[in-house]
Amino acid sequence: MKILWVKSDLLHPTTKGGHIRTLEMLKRIATRHEVHYAAFDENPDGEGRRLSSQYCTKVYTVPHRPPSRTSLAFAAQLARGVFSNLPVAIFRYKSSGMARLLTEIIGKEKFDSIVCDFITPSINFPSLSSSVVFEHNVETVLWRRHAQNARNTAERLYLNLQARRMFRYEGDVCRAARHVIAVSGEDASQLGTMFGIEPVSSIPTGVDVDYFTPREATPRQGLVFVGSMDWLPNIDGMRWFCQDVLPLIRARRPDCRLSVVGRSPTREILRLADRDPLIEITGTVPDVRPWLWNAALSVVPLRIGGGTRMKIYEAMAARTPVVSTTIGAEGLEVNPLRDICIADDAPGFAEQCLGLLADEDLRDSIASAAWSLVDREFGWDRIARRFEAILEKYSGTKP
Predict the structure, then answer these.
(1) pLDDT per residue over 169-210, tens digit each?
(2) For 1-7, what is the mean pLDDT?
């Protein structure tokens, strides 16, 4: 097949779950098919374009840098979001340059399959009738959960407004597309029900088990959280964990350390370490594996989310037991009490952590079961084959 893959950004530096999922599949798909990749290039002098040959035959880029969430320009976008019919998360990526590029190359190259990776690039497509939309999250659900966990009335009103607009926009995109692929059966069912589309395909999350498996035994202590720290669900999760859960753990284990490992921590996240010497905020790291290998537990205290959390399968491959909320583990094929621990309120989450911290044999049992699960079922080669089979099935134009 000759495939056009359109995403909002290049895949290096690979710092987000969406980057990892796309990169790992494309590296394998590109060995069997001709892949053209189109994206914004936020940093023309960076490694993104230079390393694109790892996953595509040809790359097309348009310069575009959405304002950072700490900038005045982003504040202006939020204000505009009160009046625009489009969700802020979509109009941030509207680009006449990208729209012209896609119109030109789709008309000239005659692709067998076109992938819109996330719904954000869809704003620049001339038409979606020949495209497969790859939904890493059900975006409407994500925004509704933001609203449910808002910190005040004004924030809740604004987020509910954005959720309503996302519902309209996401539904229009899904209905216009040739086909939709989700990252779990649960997401596929939600998309079908919410937007009246069928069928919706799904692929599971994968992991590079060999890469994450520790080469030797190391002393393990403390807790680790891995995730981009400029992403709102991760910020909310760490806020809740540090305010409501960690004090309960510290009441019985006052020396318990927490490492928060992920790019671009906000000022709010950085202040956690200022107030507590046993909390480490790393920022961007070249390799997350040492933090997983040295931690007794990986915590995933998410209250907001969509799609699936790759960080859970990565921790499992690293033989690090996971304590997660139900939302954190949503859509993953896991087995509570056998290969993961689940709790949704602060006392329950703290008890799960304390029980594992106190019982090395239990930690080893859960870690071994979890590693066996991901090794048996969720290697990227298998996931990539499933994805390309869906593309082959739905190549062409929507009838």
Answers:
(1) 999 999 999 999 999 999 999 999 999 999 999 999 899 999
(2) 97
Nearest CA-CA partner of 90 in 137, 123, 133, 131: 123
How far apart (Å, rounded) are the C-alpha atoms in residues 351 and 349?
5
Provide the 3-class DSSP secondary structure of residue 90: helix
Q: Which DSSP letter does residue 103 get?
A: H
- Express each pLDDT in 255-265 by its tens digit: 999 999 999 99
Structural domains for the chain: 2-206+380-393 (3.40.50.2000), 209-377 (3.40.50.2000)
Query: Are the C-beta atoms of 173 and 125 separated by less than 8 Å?
Result: no
Rounded Cα distance, 124 and 311, in Å: 30
Please give the Cα distance from 260 to 283 (Å, whole number): 8
Residue 141's nearest CA partner among 17, 308, 7 is: 308
The sheet carrying 258-261 orders its strands as 279-283, 258-261, 223-226, 297-300, 322-324, 341-342
